[in-house]
Amino acid sequence: LDADNYETDPCLKEIRRAENYSWMDIVTIHKDKLPNYEEKIKTFYEEHLHLDDEIRYILDGSGYFDVRDKDDKWIRISMEKGDMITLPAGIYHRFTLDENNYVKAMRLFVGEPVWTAYNRPADDFPARKQYMKFLAEEAH
């Protein structure tokens, strides 16, 4: 995606329309820009899940999303300017900055945003059970 022109990017506009991403904001994760920076960085790095998809579009900077594979092993996904990721509801994950200690990201939601993170273990939520069912079906 064209992060330099995200406000007018037709590709982003089409993704938002097709996926019904009706809400968005922009967050800058940097010690000089984010209130309670140290606390938030620790929270982002705690392994957790959400009951809704997590959609992030990197407008500047870089970082890593770590996700668990079907065998519960970590997979590190490097994210940089122009990248977009959708983490499905129920997937355990965490986020960390790289050595640049800076990322500016667009957060997208279907409907009103829900920021609640459920730290592991959170296996009893329907979103987690649905995600595990999806993994089992994909394995066959």
Automatic annotation (TrEMBL):
What's the main place this protein lives?
A: membrane
Q: Which cofactor does it need?
A: Ni(2+); Fe(2+)
| Reactions listed under catalytic activity | 1,2-dihydroxy-5-(methylsulfanyl)pent-1-en-3-one + O2 = 4-methylsulfanyl-2-oxobutanoate + formate + 2 H(+)
> What molecular functions are annotated in GO for this chain?
acireductone dioxygenase [iron(II)-requiring] activity; metal ion binding
Query: Could you tell me which Gene3D superfamilies the record lists for this protein?
Result: Jelly Rolls
Q: How does it sit in the membrane?
A: Peripheral membrane protein
Q: Which InterPro entries match?
A: ARD, ARD_euk, RmlC-like_jellyroll, RmlC_Cupin_sf
Report the protein name in the record. acireductone dioxygenase (Fe(2+)-requiring)
Q: Which organism is it from?
A: Hippolais icterina
